[in-house]
């Protein structure tokens, strides 16, 4: 040990609670005895060079998450492309185009396919490259590695090998799975944050072996040698089995010596460790699961359409090949000019069946234009651009953390517009996991004037609603309660000053020592002492701020300490036996440091729901200070300790309603003798060895914590992320259901439920839980068949609870009644079983809000799957931690909260946003747009290809079904790729039915997505019908016009090229005008692209015609010489274009005038600027534009509003009867 | 993917939450800003856009506009079409009598006299130029086998004489390439017509420039002469004058432009004198082309043209129909808007106002 080094003196590890009191049973651990498979790893510590050769060569610390590398890219990416059935078809067609069966030349089949596949593969390559760069960023991170000479140098992560000794400094991530050798603390402990692994925010203690403690300096590693034999790489995060051979002795290793990759060193200045598992062997990488590739509902439906089209394709192919066979058999022999049969048997009247079969293949290729080859690639392109918009949205950029939103996959953009249920994690998603001391009630007096976020939000909403309802109401300002509340909220917001983390309390009566002038200063002092003493935290002096900050087990404890500090009770030091507090003297107002002897500490457990300390102050008085859940504390009050009970209960209810977390504080004065006798028992209990120890300890503690005297209560705000209540409110108005799945305990979850307005007063809470008492009784009575009986009984019990609750909901008459389902993890295990889950789902669907607490990550995923599969609706899971990964992967859409440190959720997610509140914009704006865009785009795609493809079929019928195409190969080649694809891409990228502000103002518009109004079969078939109609019009009008007559004054008649070109020109016009009618939002880009498509066709036609006839064939000078001077050509274009688009125009006009959809009306309002002329109508409508919802603070305010309105209505009806119009 | 990127740059979060948040955010500021999306109207989807909506005014004006444009066009087209005088004479059955097999025998025989005389009455004055067409029916010039059976290169270039692979089976005869090869050329139409008026004055037929100029100039070589044509055992249609280059064989050029439909007309020539109404035209024709095998009709057509081309009532009618339909729609919409007006942008039509509470 290096002498003279300043070290953390406290052995924190043994400070806390029962742990420190517990006798250290030093049962000398036997080294693990393991042989055989699964335990073959052999690590030579500090000799990484030994691991360069087999058999000890382990994988490098280089990680790669890329899909392809240089070699595998081509085959793998190609394989991916041809997993799409349409692409296989086109590939097949391309092969066949090399044979004489093909109706087209080979290049016209292969070129578009190559283009489309090439584009998709280019996209894959770019994505892969990004992934590679991301990997490299991690791989290139530097860490200090021992270089064999007793010194450490920085090396990139990827160069770390098994056996390397590594020095990790504070707040750095571990680059690989390490064996902890020593830390900057004397006792070799270190604190680790495992948020990336399991989402838990509390720090975990890791402890090195005693024997390696001496390796605490860089130079000591020069001669360090050791061997670790351990298990093979596996994904289990919480187990580790291995032995360390060091100095000829074998020491067993367990998980507490293992530092896992991607966890972070906290509160410890540095640690030394040996790399055991590197790179992909590390536990976190072993845990990596391939995220399931998700496909959006629309895409799945699109597949069905493709199948429909394939059926149609096969059908018309069969028709045409039958027709061909018949024609060939019966008429071909008489067509002497054909000289049938030919050599290849393609036109053999004697063998018409075979010829018919050949023709079937021809036909299948010929009508391939029914299936849009460029559909996939266009959709992909559009989605990438849409994702770009999401990534670049400044309204989803978090200034604080500097994180923009990120669409990690672009597959699901449109799915964002169809979400029905949101499953949300709590900590880190809804809340910041930061507690703010907000209010308190001491001696029956409420303190703290700042309103909670919920109250503020509600007040805001209330004022807004009233404003919107009628200005008569707002004019009568004086009487309007909410106005005043709002003012108060505003004032308090302004007076913020410099915010102190964890402390938002505001009340001059207590601040700056003013409390001494209050009515009961002794009680107040006691209250503050409880705050300052009853905890397990450790102070840390921060030189920069010249003050203390606290490292506490839970954030509310931290908040208490900060509060105590601000009140003048600064907890500044703790030793094993004492707590030092700098206190403001009651009389002199001066600060003195007081020592309180810590006699006992009775720990907090979720079962006890309280913690106590027994302290002795400087005067020798022994006190028990206790804090705990109000119900528990109130049960334990002495008769004379209930002075403030009534007032405090009232305050606690208020706090609860305001969404605050409450605890009651109490104390008790102990006589020395009383304490001594109790302490004996306590010591006896804690030194006892055996299974009953816990129970005994609990019992003894129980004895002590009674006859308490109530001091007061605290209200801590579990700080919600910014804008969460508003966002939830909006989402609820958009008709989304929100479920909260949290690992937290029930009380916390309920509190958050209140603060997010998922719960409110007057909502009926259905708590499904296991009856613990019954369980215990059972277990005692039937000790033998414990498991069997309890399982059965519990299940029956839960089933009954579920059935009752469902019954209750069914029988409910009041339309405003709302139910909330609260269920905990243990119960959920039963409720998720096969036979109960549907009942559970029924119940959950019937409830306005659902809160699942204490759920494991796996259960989160299971619940998600249940909702997804049970309701068949689209689910979205949002979370921030690794514990949400399962849920995020299971849901139709997974959203990760980025910006916080845990990236696991983000990595698994499809979309990453920095704050929960961005979800609103992501869904209501981007989701809505993307859904409509993609839906319209796909419909249009099918339309245009049907309109075009069927003309080929009709024409073929006129050629004796011979498979001749009327169009030049080049026309068709360009049709999908250039001439019609750009406007539809513009539609998919830029279309906006209403602007983003309106989307947000009218959340009800969102419902168009979940109800799938724009991609139902009615609409799809409507579009297909339109395509059919257009194909008929295009073909037959042209055919009749160019039938046999001269089409020019010069007497020339039309040949096939003329007819084909005219017809094709009509198709181009028709589909491009159609898309112009479809769009409602024209930027210059749309104008340009539609114009471009049509002009490009002419340009192509002219250029193609100018090429020498070797290339252009019959199209040589077709436009310049033959068509352009013919008036009938232009007349036919005009006629056909108008005739084709007429029904659609009439249809949408009728729709609009008789059955306008919401966005139509809103467009009109905007168009006529009515929103500016009539602001009241606008605000009224936007406040009405919401789904009936029972959650969110709007719903919460509703009841109040109703009440208020009734009052006002009475009043105003007296003043002026005109106002008293009935309102909902 | 459960990637192991624990976080993007670590220093962004370096000030640990426990240290009171007194880190050094300033040093991170530039890096943070670098992630901030750049503002542009494009990326924020705020490009200026026109958002036309279908107001009744627009709808009715659109339909009326179509009406106003279409009806005159329709009328003009009909007028133009009415000016065209067209005489159609089907002669295949008139020239050969008997059963189908007899007809086929007759037409295939080398010896029979195939001359046939028809007389056409002109009902209306025909102004020159009068175009002479032959019209075939049930002849699949658009059949894939037929269409493909030609060699454009051979027609154009002297050097590509042997480029006949696409011409099978009419690619060579007696071991030599056929020029022009292929079924299309081989089945060249070979009926001929000569016209005289009732006073026995011959009506000259101008057969020059009945084909597209580009065909003559670029697609059919001036140095390519017919060779070995119709020399195989099975003779299809017409023969060619072997002393004329292909680009002067305009009948062939016209024939090689395959028609789109099984019924088609092709230009035979022009009569460049006016013919008065009431006059009778005597046609002496050589009825050589075999359409009897497949029961195809043969017609002789004399027609003048207007600016619109030949006699084509359809386009006029179609224009009138669409125009009329639009007028009907415009009226319907007008009536609808008058009878049951929907105040545009009337919030009462919003779904939440139409069925309150009933979502």
Describe the structure concisely.
The complex is a heterodimer of chains A (1224) and B (359). By secondary structure, chain A is an alpha+beta fold.
What does this structure look like?
The complex is a heterodimer of chains A (1224) and B (359). Chain A is α+β, with helices and mostly antiparallel strands and 1224 residues long. In chain A, 46% of the residues lie in helices and 16% in strands. Chain A has 41 helices and 33 strands. In chain A, the strands form six sheets. A nine-stranded mixed β-sheet of chain A has the order 14-33-32-31-15-27-30-29-28, sandwiched between helices. In chain A, helix 10 (453-469) packs across helix 12 (481-494). The longest helix of chain A is centred in the C-terminal third of the chain and has 41 residues, at 918-958. The radius of gyration of chain A is 38 Å and the shape is globular. Chain B has 359 residues and is α+β, with helices and mostly antiparallel strands. Chain B has helices at 25-35, 56-83, 92-95, 100-108, 144-148, 152-156, 182-186, 213-219, 250-256, 313-339, 351-354; strands at residues 86-90, 115-121, 130-136, 172-173, 176-177, 192-197, 202-203, 205-206, 264-271, 280-286, 298-303. In chain B, the strands form three sheets. Chain B has a five-stranded antiparallel β-sheet. A four-stranded antiparallel β-sheet of chain B has the order 2-10-6-7, with no helix packed on it. A two-stranded antiparallel sheet of chain B has the order 4-5. In chain B, a hairpin with a 2-residue loop joins strand 4 and strand 5. In chain B, helix 2 (56-83) packs antiparallel against helix 10 (313-339). Chain B: Residues 14-30 have a biased composition (Low complexity). Chain B: It is found in: Membrane. Chain B: Keywords: Membrane, Transmembrane, Transmembrane helix. Chain B: Residues 1-42, 151-171 are annotated as: Disordered. Chain B: InterPro entries: CDC50/LEM3_fam (IPR005045).
């Amino acid at each position: 040990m290096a002498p003279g080094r300043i070290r953390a003196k406290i052995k924190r590890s043994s400070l806390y609670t029962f742990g420190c009191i517990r006798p250290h049973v030093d049962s000398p651990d036997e080294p693990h005895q393991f042989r055989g498979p699964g335990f073959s790893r052999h690590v030579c510590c500090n000799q990484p060079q030994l691991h360069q050769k087999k058999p000890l060569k382990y994988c490098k610390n280089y990680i790669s998450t890329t899909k392809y590398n240089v070699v595998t890219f081509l085959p793998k990416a190609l394989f991916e492309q041809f997993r799409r059935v349409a692409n296989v078809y086109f590939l097949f067609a391309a092969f066949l185009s090399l044979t004489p069966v093909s109706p087209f030349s080979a290049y016209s089949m292969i070129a578009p396919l190559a283009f489309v596949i090439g584009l998709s593969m280019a996209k894959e390559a770019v994505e892969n490259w990004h992934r590679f760069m991301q990997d490299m960023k991690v791989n290139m991170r530097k860490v200090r590695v021992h270089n064999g000479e007793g010194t450490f140098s920085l090396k990139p992560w990827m160069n770390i090998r098994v056996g390397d000794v590594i020095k990790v400094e504070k707040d750095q991530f571990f680059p690989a799975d390490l064996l902890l050798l020593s830390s900057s603390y004397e006792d070799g402990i270190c604190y680790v944050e495992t948020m990336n692994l399991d989402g838990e925010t509390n720090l975990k203690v890791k402890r090195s072996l005693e024997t390696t403690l001496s390796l605490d300096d860089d130079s000591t590693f020069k001669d360090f040698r050791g061997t670790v034999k351990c298990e093979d790489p596996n994904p289990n995060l919480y187990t580790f089995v291995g032995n360390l051979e060091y100095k000829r002795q074998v020491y067993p290793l367990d998980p507490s010596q293992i530092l896992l990759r991607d966890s972070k060193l906290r509160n410890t200045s540095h640690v030394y460790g040996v790399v055991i598992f590197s790179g992909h062997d590390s536990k976190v990488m072993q845990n990596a699961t391939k995220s399931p590739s998700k496909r959006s509902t629309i895409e799945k439906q699109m597949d069905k359409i493709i199948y429909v089209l394939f059926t149609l394709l096969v059908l018309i192919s069969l028709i045409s090949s039958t027709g061909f066979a018949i024609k060939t058999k019966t008429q071909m022999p008489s067509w002497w000019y054909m000289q049938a049969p030919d050599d290849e048997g393609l036109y053999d009247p004697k063998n018409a069946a075979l010829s018919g079969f050949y023709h079937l293949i021809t036909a299948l290729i010929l009508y391939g234009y029914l299936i849009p080859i460029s559909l996939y690639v266009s959709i992909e392109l559009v989605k990438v651009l849409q994702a770009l918009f999401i990534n670049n949205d400044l309204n989803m950029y978090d200034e604080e953390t500097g994180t923009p939103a990120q669409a990690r996959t672009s597959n699901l953009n449109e799915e964002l517009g169809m979400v029905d249920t949101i499953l949300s994690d709590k900590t880190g998603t809804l809340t910041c996991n930061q507690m703010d001391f907000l209010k308190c009630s001491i001696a029956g007096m409420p303190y703290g004037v700042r309103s909670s976020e919920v109250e503020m939000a509600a007040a805001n909403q209330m004022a807004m609603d009233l404003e919107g309802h009628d200005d008569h109401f707002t004019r009568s300002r004086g009487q309007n309660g909410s106005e005043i509340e709002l003012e108060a909220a505003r004032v308090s917001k302004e007076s913020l000053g410099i915010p102190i983390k964890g402390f938002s309390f505001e009340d001059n009566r207590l601040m700056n020592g003013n409390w001494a002038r209050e009515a009961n200063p002794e009680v107040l002092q006691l209250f503050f002492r409880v705050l300052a003493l009853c905890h397990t935290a450790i102070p840390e002096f921060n030189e920069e701020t010249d003050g203390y900050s606290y490292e506490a087990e839970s954030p509310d404890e931290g908040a208490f300490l900060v509060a105590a500090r601000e009140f003048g009770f600064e907890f500044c030091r703790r030793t094993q036996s004492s707590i030092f507090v700098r206190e403001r003297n009651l009389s002199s107002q001066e600060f003195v440091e007081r020592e309180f002897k810590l006699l006992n500490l009775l720990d907090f457990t979720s079962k006890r729901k309280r913690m106590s300390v027994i302290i002795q102050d400087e005067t020798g008085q022994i006190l028990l200070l206790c804090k705990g859940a109000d119900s528990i504390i109130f049960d334990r009050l002495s008769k004379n300790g209930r002075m403030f009970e009534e007032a405090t209960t009232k305050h606690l209810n208020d706090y609860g309603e305001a969404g605050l977390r409450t605890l009651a504080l109490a104390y008790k004065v102990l006589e020395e003798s009383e304490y001594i006798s109790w302490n004996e028992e306590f010591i006896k209990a804690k030194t006892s060895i055996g299974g009953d120890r816990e129970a005994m300890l609990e019992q003894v503690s129980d004895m002590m914590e009674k006859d308490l005297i109530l001091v007061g209560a605290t209200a801590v705000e579990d700080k919600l992320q910014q804008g969460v209540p508003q966002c939830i409110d909006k989402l609820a108005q958009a008709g989304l259901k929100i479920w909260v799945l949290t690992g937290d305990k029930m009380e916390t979850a309920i509190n958050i439920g209140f603060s997010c307005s998922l719960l409110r007063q007057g909502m009926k809470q259905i708590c499904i839980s296991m009856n613990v008492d019954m369980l215990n009784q059972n277990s005692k009575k039937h000790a033998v068949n414990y498991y069997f009986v309890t399982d059965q009984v519990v299940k029956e019990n839960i089933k009954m609870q579920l059935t009752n609750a469902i019954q209750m909901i069914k029988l409910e008459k009041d339309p405003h009644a709302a139910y909330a389902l609260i269920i905990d993890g243990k119960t959920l295990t039963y409720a998720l079983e096969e036979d109960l889950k549907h009942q559970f789902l029924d119940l959950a669907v019937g409830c306005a809000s659902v809160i699942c607490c204490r759920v494991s990550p796996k259960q989160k995923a299971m619940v998600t799957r249940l909702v997804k599969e049970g309701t068949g609706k689209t689910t979205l899971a949002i979370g921030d931690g690794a514990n949400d990964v399962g849920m995020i992967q299971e849901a139709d859409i997974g959203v990760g909260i980025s910006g916080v440190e845990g990236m696991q959720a983000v990595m698994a997610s499809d979309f990453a946003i920095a704050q929960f509140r961005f979800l609103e914009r992501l869904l209501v704006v981007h989701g809505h747009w993307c859904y409509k865009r993609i839906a319209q785009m796909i419909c249009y795609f099918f339309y245009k290809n049907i309109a075009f493809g069927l003309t080929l079929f009709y024409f073929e019928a006129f050629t004796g079904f011979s498979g001749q195409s009327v169009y030049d190969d080049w026309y068709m080649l360009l049709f999908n790729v250039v001439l019609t694809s750009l406007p539809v891409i513009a539609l998919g990228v830029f279309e906006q039915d209403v602007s983003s502000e309106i989307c947000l103002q009218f959340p009800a518009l969102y419902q168009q997505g979940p109800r799938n109004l724009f991609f139902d079969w009615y609409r799809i078939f409507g579009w297909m019908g339109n395509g059919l109609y257009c194909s008929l019009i295009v073909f037959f009008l042209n055919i009749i016009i160019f039938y046999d007559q001269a089409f020019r004054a010069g007497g020339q008649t039309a040949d096939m090229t003329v007819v084909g070109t005219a017809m094709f020109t009509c198709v181009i016009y028709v589909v491009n005008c159609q898309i112009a009618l479809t769009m409602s939002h024209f930027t210059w880009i749309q104008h340009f692209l539609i114009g471009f498509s049509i002009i490009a066709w002419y340009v192509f036609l002219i250029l193609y015609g100018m090429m020498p006839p070797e290339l252009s064939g019959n199209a040589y000078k077709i436009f310049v010489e033959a068509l352009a001077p013919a008036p009938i050509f232009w007349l036919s274009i005009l006629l056909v274009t108008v005739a084709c688009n007429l029904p659609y125009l009439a249809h949408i006009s009728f729709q609009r005038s008789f059955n306008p959809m919401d966005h139509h009306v809103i467009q009109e309002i905007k168009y006529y600027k009515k929103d500016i002329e009539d602001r009241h109508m606008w605000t009224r409508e936007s406040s009405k534009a919401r789904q009936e919802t029972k959650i969110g603070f709007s719903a919460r305010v509703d009841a109040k509003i109703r009440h208020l309105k009734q009052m006002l209505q009475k009043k105003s009806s007296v003043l002026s009867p005109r106002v008293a119009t009935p309102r909902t | 993917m459960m990637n192991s990127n624990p976080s993007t740059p670590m220093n962004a979060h370096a000030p640990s939450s426990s240290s009171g948040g007194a880190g050094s955010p300033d040093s991170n500021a530039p890096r943070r800003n670098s992630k901030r999306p750049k503002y542009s109207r494009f990326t924020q989807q705020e490009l200026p856009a026109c958002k036309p909506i279908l107001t009744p005014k627009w709808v009715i004006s659109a339909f009326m506009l179509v009406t106003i444009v279409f009806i005159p066009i329709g009328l003009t087209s009909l007028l133009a079409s009415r000016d065209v005088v067209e005489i159609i004479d089907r002669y295949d059955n008139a020239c050969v009598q008997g059963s189908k097999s007899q007809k086929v025998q007759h037409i295939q025989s080398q010896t029979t006299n195939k001359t046939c005389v028809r007389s056409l009455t002109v009902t209306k004055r025909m102004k020159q130029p009068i175009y002479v067409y032959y019209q075939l029916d049930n002849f699949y010039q658009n059949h894939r086998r037929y269409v493909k059976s030609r060699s454009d290169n051979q027609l154009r270039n002297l050097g590509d004489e042997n480029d006949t692979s696409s011409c099978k089976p009419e690619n060579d005869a007696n071991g030599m390439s056929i020029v022009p090869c292929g079924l299309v050329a081989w089945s060249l139409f070979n009926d001929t017509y000569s016209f005289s008026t009732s006073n026995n004055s011959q009506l000259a037929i101008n057969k020059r420039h009945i084909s597209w100029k580009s065909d003559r100039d670029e697609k059919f070589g001036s140095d390519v002469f017919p060779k070995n044509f119709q020399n195989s055992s099975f003779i299809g249609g017409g023969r060619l004058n072997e002393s004329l280059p292909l680009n002067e064989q305009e009948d062939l050029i016209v024939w090689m432009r395959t028609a789109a439909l099984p019924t088609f007309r092709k230009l035979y020539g022009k009569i460049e004198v006016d013919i008065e109404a009431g006059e009778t035209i005597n046609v002496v024709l050589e009825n050589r082309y075999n359409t009897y095998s497949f029961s195809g009709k043969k017609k002789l057509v004399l027609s003048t043209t207007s600016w619109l081309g030949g006699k084509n009532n359809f386009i006029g009618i179609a224009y009138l129909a669409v125009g009329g339909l639009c007028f009907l729609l415009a009226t319907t919409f007008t009536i609808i808007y008058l009878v049951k007006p929907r105040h545009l942008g009337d919030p009462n039509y919003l779904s939440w106002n139409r069925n309150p509470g009933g979502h």
